[in-house]
Design goal:
The chain contains 26 helices and 27 strands. It is α+β, with helices and mostly antiparallel strands. The strands form 5 sheets. An 8-stranded mixed barrel has the order 18-19-21-22-23-24-25-26, surrounded by 5 helices. Strands 2-1-5-4-3 form a 5-stranded antiparallel β-sheet. A 5-stranded antiparallel β-sheet has the order 7-6-10-9-8, with helices on both faces. It is rod-shaped and about 160 Å long. It binds ligand C2E and calcium ion (CA) (2 copies). It holds the Pfam family GGDEF.
């Protein structure tokens, strides 16, 4: 190629053929233009070429001077970012921008209206072709506002009323996935876009926070939209300004999430529940759907926590919450109310299902052993439920009724999924009335103790007695303990009542000693009393304060005390035993009856539950077994509820030396019991 041909390479063959033009001439034409033209190298931040007008604008001596300027030296990050943006825009699409720029060649402000386009260099890189004219409108206001529009991080876009973009400022261009993305097209959830469009049509302006697709993934934008007119065409348009509020939004969401969810299971917590229930109820109500409240409570959860540790307890709660989520429908609510109690609000798809199918499914899911702490274990559930609308008309009422049903399920060993019934409410009302009345009875000291003799099976000789409480009600007469002790236990009033019983029994023991009887006495101690420090303290001071002999007082406790309902049960029992009291297991055989754990406790005696008397009629195999268990522990044995001579004879024949029951005597007042002792000692003296 000749020099001339090389130089002329950019001219069309026609031009060259005609011989009228050459590159120098073309270039000189550029220099005579009134428009400044230059090419800018994005990557090196330098001018690659400029015509004379551009040199004038830039106050440059010549092309070399201009090309030698390294603009990166004092380029602000904002300008750099903007240039990068242009480059990206040009790479993505063949676009041009018309903008007003203020340049500062040699420190002098030069306001130019610049048109920018992308141009590919021979090495494939993108550069920028600029055409600039002095900006006509040199009003400082206009200049500054144009500058502000370029620099602001607020994304500003002008759309037609159909949502087609007419103009985007730099920030808007940087964020949008494609320059022609429509107003609605940028929403992650298009329904939000509809909401915004409808609102602006109706109210002329609107604001919302929405999830928007951007070049950096979905972001949260606060959008303000205003109806206006396009200044160029005069057509109606929408001006949208957006700011990125992702961090703020996410922090807020997170805080809200933490406040509304249970950290361990990720289920809704109590706080959030109310809000969601209201929503679900509105849906159920609108669709005429039936909703069911379920309260699920784990049986013996405390036992898992106490015996396997808190990590195993946590794992169990997580396992249960996973199962509950798995079984419930997408619109159902599953919440942890605290501890081991869960609430499910289940929406019935159709009502052909049996009313408790969901509760039964829950029970079914736990009917086989679950892996906890690496071992398969049985997890028992109690479930109470109530239907909307039959069992309650609002959330509060349903919650209360479901709770009553759960209470019933917890106390019933057989039916673990129980529906609310009116009678439960009546029962609860009665309980509440009794509890109030009990508070008064404690104040008024309305309790008395009766004593039921314990006698020898061989010769009917009285060798002790159990103190049994009665309530002398001013209107209702004598009330048996079964009617009020469970309520006292549940409400905690048993602690006050128990302190009184303990004092009375100790005092009675001291009194009969003065009458020169030294018959051992038994008193019942509720599990709850053992965790009451006042009780243990009172028991320790009792021998000094009343003059009783603690070795002649037995404390009757039930087996579940030993099973972990009370942490430190072993320590407390040991303390009581060290003070001198005897420890006796009451109602033996009705609970877990595990010899292995009985060995860990300082047990002196066992009372075989009344229900085993029926067994005696049919051979007494179980009683024999219980008797051998007891003797292996070296404990004394009392058979309870002995009503017939044949039962007593059988016991005597099978090595059970002591009995208590109607056969000998019902529980009687103290005076009557003392006179029994007197008669007995008179007969013995004869
Ligand atoms: P318990 O400790 O098992 O007491 C034995 C119960 O069986 C007594 O009922 C007694 O009257 C009854 N009984 C005794 N012999 C026979 C019999 O041959 N046949 C039948 N059918 N029953 C018999 P009571 O006095 O009504 O007491 C009921 C329960 O109330 C007691 O069961 C005990 O758990 C609780 N209780 C009684 N007094 C107290 C107390 O002072 N403190 C605490 N915490 N609980 C008490
Ligand atoms: Ca007892
Ligand atoms: Ca008993």
């Amino acid at each position: 190629m000749t020099e001339a041909a090389k130089k002329n390479r950019y001219l069309t063959p026609v031009d060259i053929a005609e011989g009228l033009l050459d590159l120098d001439l073309v270039m000189s034409v550029y220099d005579r233009l009134d428009t400044g033209v230059w090419i800018f190298d994005f990557d090196h931040k330098r001018y690659l070429w400029a015509n004379q007008k551009a040199l004038d604008f830039m106050d440059a001596e010549g092309l070399e001077d201009l090309m030698s300027r390294d603009l990166s030296a004092d380029m602000s990050p904002a300008v750099e970012e903007r240039l990068n943006q242009y480059k990206q825009d040009f790479c993505r699409q063949d676009v041009s921008f018309e903008e007003i720029w203020t340049l500062y060649p040699k420190g002098k402000a030069q306001i130019l209206q610049i048109n920018m386009k992308g141009v590919r260099l021979f090495d494939g890189r993108m550069a920028m072709l600029c055409e600039a004219r002095p900006h006509q409108e040199q009003q400082p206001e206009t200049v500054r506002s144009a500058e502000a529009l370029l620099h602001t991080t607020v994304m500003i876009t002008l759309f037609t009323v159909e949502g087609v973009p007419l103009y985007r400022n730099t920030a808007s261009r940087a964020a949008c996935c494609s320059l022609d993305t429509t107003l609605k097209g940028q929403f992650v959830d298009p329904r939000k876009g509809d909401v915004l469009m409808r609102r602006v049509e109706r109210e002329r302006n609107s604001r919302l926070v929405a999830n928007i697709r951007t070049t950096t993934g979905p972001r949260w934008h606060e959008m303000t939209i205003r109806a206006c007119h396009d200044a160029v065409t005069g057509q109606p348009a929408y001006l949208v300004s957006e700011i990125d509020v992702t961090e703020l939004h996410e922090t807020k969401e997170r805080a809200q999430y933490l406040a509304s969810h249970d950290a361990l299971t990720g289920l809704s917590n109590r706080t959030y529940l109310k809000e969601r229930l209201t929503e679900v109820f509105q849906t159920a109500f609108a669709k005429g759907q039936r909703a069911t409240f379920y309260l699920v409570d784990l049986d013996d959860f405390k036992l898992v926590n106490d015996t396997l540790g808190h990590a195993a307890g946590d794992a169990l709660l997580q396992l249960v919450s996973e199962k509950l989520k798995e079984l419930s429908g997408p619109d159902d609510i599953v919440a942890r109310l605290g501890g081991d109690e869960f609430l499910i609000c289940h929406l019935e798809e159709d009502d052909r299902q049996s009313p408790d199918w969901f509760g039964q499914a829950l029970l079914g899911a736990f009917s086989s052993p679950q892996m906890i702490d690496g071992k398969p274990r049985h997890v028992g559930l109690s479930i109470g439920y109530a239907h909307y609308p039959e069992d309650g008309r609002d959330i509060e009422q349903l919650m209360r009724h479901t709770d009553l049903a759960l209470y019933q399920a917890k106390t019933d060993p057989q039916y673990k999924c129980v529906r609310f019934h009116e009678r439960m409410r009546r029962l609860r009302d009665e309980h509440n009335a009794i509890r109030k009345d009990l508070e008064r009875a404690i104040e008024e000291n309305e309790f008395i103790l009766h004593y039921q003799p314990i006698a020898r099976t061989s010769n009917d000789r009285v060798v002790g007695a159990e103190a049994l409480i009665r309530w002398q009600h001013p209107e209702r007469g004598l009330i048996r303990p079964d009617e009020f002790i469970p309520i006292a236990e549940e409400s905690g009033l048993i602690n006050d009542i128990g302190l009184w019983v303990a004092w009375e029994v100790a005092a009675m023991q001291a009194r009969q000693k003065a009458l020169s009887f030294d018959v051992p006495l038994s008193m019942n101690v509720s599990p709850r009393q053992l965790s009451d420090p006042a009780f243990v303290d009172r028991m320790q001071r009792m021998p000094v304060e009343t003059g009783c002999d603690p070795s002649l007082i037995s404390l009757e406790i039930t087996e579940n005390v030993l099973l972990g309902d009370i942490p430190q049960a072993q320590d407390i029992l040991t303390t009581l035993k060290e003070t001198g009291y005897r420890i006796v297991i009451d109602d033996f055989g009705t609970g877990y009856s595990n010899l292995a754990y009985l060995r860990n406790y300082p047990i002196d005696g066992i009372k075989i539950d009344r229900m085993f008397m029926d067994d005696i009629e049919t051979g007494g195999e179980i009683v024999k077994l219980v008797l051998s268990l007891a003797s292996a522990l070296g404990a004394s044995i009392v058979a309870e509820g002995v009503e017939t001579i044949s039962q007593r004879r059988w016991l005597s024949d099978n090595g059970c030396n002591l009995f208590q029951g109607y056969l000998y005597s019902k529980p009687v007042p103290e005076t009557r019991f003392l006179s029994m002792l007197e008669t007995q000692s008179r007969i013995a003296a004869m």
